[in-house]
Fold this sequence. Notes:
By secondary structure, the chain is of the alpha+beta class.
Amino acid sequence: MTKEIGVGKAHSKIILMGEHSVVYGYPAISLPLNRIEVTCQVFPSERAWTLYAEDTLSMAVFACLEHLGQQGAKIRCQVESMVPEKRGMGSSAAVSIAAIRAVFDYFEEELDDQTLEILANRAEMIAHMNPSGLDAKTCLSDVAIKFIRNFGFSEIELDLDAFLVIADTGIHGHTREAIRAVESQGQKALPLLQELGNLTKILEKAIFIKDLMTMGQAMTKAHEKLAKLGVSCQKADELVAAALENGALGAKMSGGGLGGCVIALVGEKSQAEALAALLREKGAINTWIESL
């Protein structure tokens, strides 16, 4: 049995803290962005689905069809996304999850959470070669996620009277290049990575006691360390500086770096709206506001 149209949705994510140091065993904290969504629709087609190399949508659908024993199915997909690509917001993971849900919906098959995560991570391997699983895990979650390499995932409850302003630099992030740039520094990078790891722990404690000032300070210090590692970019530095000059409690780049987004912490909704508008004036091509 099939439906006329199968529909699936997923939301995006953003890294709050822990970029790059997470590769070296320190924690990272990632937030779901529940209102920034991807929608996928599956329709009948005259042609069978084709697997294309290095394409997460293609791989996600193929993995579903294989799982369901429908390899020869004649279907096509239509994706509508609010999530910009290559900005550290989990675009590929969100597309994969939405597509998997849409395919299962089309074939009127039950989809449990474990199967969804396994299939999403299979698709993510196409996009990221050796993904940690953090993007998929956060895009599947309604709460913040902490990840430590070789230890796994845990949930963090956020109940803060605060807002996160996310600003898109308009520049594609280059995670692999940034990771290689850090690796090439060898021992010289280790003190900065350790400081980043410690800042993530400080921020986690601050979340628990709802200390916005300490959270903001940790974020700003983290940006300074990431810039010293050489993984920020001029546009991100400019937007971080503008946020701090205009009332943000803290601000930093987010994601792999060399592009992508910056995030800024503020205490009030009106302040978040004003800051979002100002960052667009300063060159951000888009902004979002997330309640924490």
